[in-house]
């Protein structure tokens, strides 16, 4: 039952990009860290569950989950840029097209974005997907092998985080944008899985953690003290996210509630991918709105972002989920067939 949490996080990322830094200082930074905790939990769970001993099925399903929808939004973004190239570059420097082979490969495969900075990114926030993919590999190869492996990775990640705090103080960027910075929240998510398999956390504790998480986010958004924002509340956010996931992920509710939770959870990724493209379209239709009020601009974009995200999620459910289900359930013939496409 963490679909609602994922939806909230994706909405916070979109708001952080569309409403401007004066309106929202913390939400985007903190939401990405919470996403990494969720992914660490889920990847450890499925590697030890339906994909145990099935590396091909695991990676094939990661591809089917992430890349087809990404390619659709990337192509739509490229078309929008080509239609209005001058306006596109004004909207974001990341859309100053570069046709070098390294950049094209990075756009197609995403993973290189975790290791180098590229001036051209069709979907600017996709660097965090690259960080996720690298950390999936770390979890797959090491962290999900058991408690001791997880603890080792977590200790190394903790040492890096501590070194960053000592070296850079409250500056969160060294602990935010790189793949090795992501190892800490991913490892905490993995630790959360191991704890949840041994200790049943009551739902009320998850609800209390969610209330505390919201309060922590609100305080961080208003925090004038940079040390409070970049250290104390930063790590509070990660720990509280782990508590929410540990309590809520194993919960089972009625069939209708579960379907609704999955539906809103499935919107998270399309919202994350499409919101900047929609923002660009809105700026072309209403060129004066963004300059007058960024919160109003975000509000104007929200219905269209939601509609397009629902459409993308539904198309993915109809066209991709049957194939993903076959792979998930161990249909080896289907796995081999899909792997050749």
What's the layout of helices and strands?
Elements: H1 3-18, H2 27-47, H3 55-83, H4 85-91, H5 101-109, H6 127-141, H7 147-168, H8 183-196, H9 203-222, H10 226-248, H11 255-266, H12 268-285, H13 289-292, H14 294-319, H15 321-328, H16 332-339
Helix pairs in contact: 1-2, 1-11, 1-12, 2-6, 2-8, 2-10, 3-4, 3-12, 3-15, 7-8, 8-10, 9-10, 12-14
Briefly summarize what is shown.
With 341 residues, this protein is mainly α. The chain is 74% helix and 0% strand. It has 16 helices and no strands.
Strand percentage lies at: under 5%
Shape: globular
* Cα distance spanning the termini: 33 Å
Percent of residues in helices comes to over 70%
Task: Write down the domain tally.
Answer: 1
Biggest sheet statistics: none
Low-confidence stretches: 332-341
